[in-house]
Amino acid sequence: MIQRIKEYILSLPRVTMNSDSHGDVEFLYDGKKVFVRITNINDNASILFRISQPYTDVEKFSHVVIRHFSWFGLPLSEEVEWETYRNVIVQAYQFIQQLIIRKTRIRYAATIGLFDGVHAGHRYLLRQLVENAAGKGLRTVAVTFDCAPKSILYPESAMPPLLSLKDKINQLYETGVDEVYVIHVTTEFLRMSALTFMHEFLVKQLNVGMLLLGHDHVFGSDRPQNKKYYDEIGAHFGIKVWHCEPYYLHETRVSSSKIRQSIQNGQMEYAAQLLGHPYRIQGKVVAGRQLGRTYGFPTANIQLEERLLLPKDGVYAAYVIHKGVRYKAMLNIGNCPTVLKHEKTIEVHIFDFEELIYGDDLQIELLHYLREEIQFKSLDELSVRLQEDCIQARAVLS
Fold this sequence. Notes:
Elements: H1 2-10, E1 15-19, E2 25-29, E3 33-41, E4 44-52, E5 69-75, H2 82-104, E6 108-112, H3 120-134, E7 139-145, H4 149-153, H5 165-174, E8 179-183, H6 187-190, H7 194-203, E9 208-213, H8 227-236, E10 240-243, E11 248-249, E12 252-253, H9 256-264, H10 268-275, E13 279-286, E14 300-304, E15 314-322, E16 325-334, E17 345-350, E18 361-371, H11 379-397
Parallel strand pairs: 6-7, 6-9, 7-8, 9-10
Antiparallel strand pairs: 1-2, 2-3, 3-4, 4-5, 11-12, 13-14, 13-18, 14-17, 15-16, 15-18, 16-17
């Protein structure tokens, strides 16, 4: 668990690690302030998070305007769920950003969005932000959320995201913005009106001078639809608000909902066009039943790093990235009915690859939907069809 926590924290942008004079492991944001510390007291390893008050229960986080901070501690134990650690890491990361931004009081140009997928339309919006801010000498900040508001309001019907939060933060930084500001979404936060949100976050927290909004973006519990309303609130607080035009690709307006629909339909090439790159999932190789090698197609069983949107069940041509090297592969998502599995699995057969990779992380790019999952009469019949799939996948990837 300790290694997984370290790798996750170090994968966040602008984070470095060192050891202090007591031997504790420290994680710093932008080389300035420690926001996570792993310590050993009486041989009991603990992890400490620098976070805003009040935090009395790990399950009851709520956002407050920052006035004080404290260290929140958790034992390092396999009995604590990974999601608990991940959530508090994000809280600590967000808080240390707030401390540094508030201290500098630099003027910012901002944009706001969930940015699920950081797709071609998002990148167009962020380019407009960076270009306009440069002409006015402002730093840029992309304000985003640690989860979709719908996942808090309607958890039963909420769709899984297209990107993990970690990958979203990294991809937002790749667009050239100076800062990515992550807001922890709670029911209390969702009760804020547009005016309150603009005052508490954009004015008090971020010192925003300019705000770029997507063509259909609304925010606040009142969700005003009139663009002029945001312009007037902004003017009241000294913020210049302007609105970006929609982004079209081949006469289609790019949106996260269109990308989700295409992925769920197995239209991976179309999803890649809208995203600007192939759709990716990421996970760890875990032990399986090892039945694949009995019919000539050994597979790596993938446990996703986080819950993400999966395409429809079936066989796909894919690329696998392992330790920086890209391999051709084919992947199956489904219940493997021929070998009588019942739970859904993700299994990938990497071409011309014989290494043992249990416990390793893989990134998978889904390129092309080959066929639906079929229950064959025998393993021999399955093996014959897999050989055909292999030929077809290699042709797609060539």
